């Protein structure tokens, strides 16, 4: 029997090296690659994952974008149809925290709807001895922008599942994102194509 599964598009953005790909891999495959096996994202990559919330299944397409400017092309297309955006920084690198202002501006440029759910994520909390951005700084910044905030570590996995779950729950609680998602293009049937992105990316929540 076929089953209609709502699809959510989530986006990971932030400076190069903050751990976006590692967070994605930890969340989808519960894996962390050693440093020598990690390479910079070129352009964009995405993975698909299923999540159950309140007894209902959701299909997440999670887009991992390149932090390096030279690999960032077609930026507006990353944002098209996104319902949630995760802005990542590295708690052991202040430049990556300061850069959140620029990333925030990019989100607001390409996502005109204020309803798109945003979350600030401070990654690499396992590096406590080299931490330069405190929890309070991260939380205050997120409070000022009225966004969700989570600290986590892709390496130890602390906080990673919580971050994605909080984001998805908030999206589900935001009716305007769902009203747009009610378009036929944005639901999918369970099929062998499940690891491919459905072509209904035009139902832009932004
Ligand atoms: N200690 C520690 N290292 C991490 C963590 N997450 C990622 N790293 C390391 O940080 C480096 C960069 O990780 P990536 O996941 O490639 O970072 P990215 O943000 O996707 O980088 P770009 O693809 O260039 O945008 C790698 O050496 C990872 O092993 C973490 O939670 N703790």
From TrEMBL:
Residues 183-206 are annotated as: Disordered. It catalyses: GTP + H2O = GDP + phosphate + H(+). It holds the Pfam family Ras. SMART domains: RAB, RAN, RAS, RHO. Keywords: GTP-binding, Hydrolase, Lipoprotein, Nucleotide-binding, Prenylation, Protein transport, Transport. CDD domains: Rab18. The keyword Protein transport applies. Its EC number is 3.6.5.2. Coiled coil: none annotated. InterPro entries: P-loop_NTPase, Rab, Small_GTP-bd, Small_GTPase. GO terms for biological process: protein transport. One of its GO terms (molecular function) is G protein activity. The keyword Mitochondrion does not apply. Belongs to the small GTPase superfamily. Rab family. This is small monomeric GTPase. It comes from Parasitella parasitica. The lineage of its organism: Eukaryota, Fungi, Fungi incertae sedis, Mucoromycota, Mucoromycotina. The gene is PARPA_08201.1 scaffold 32258.
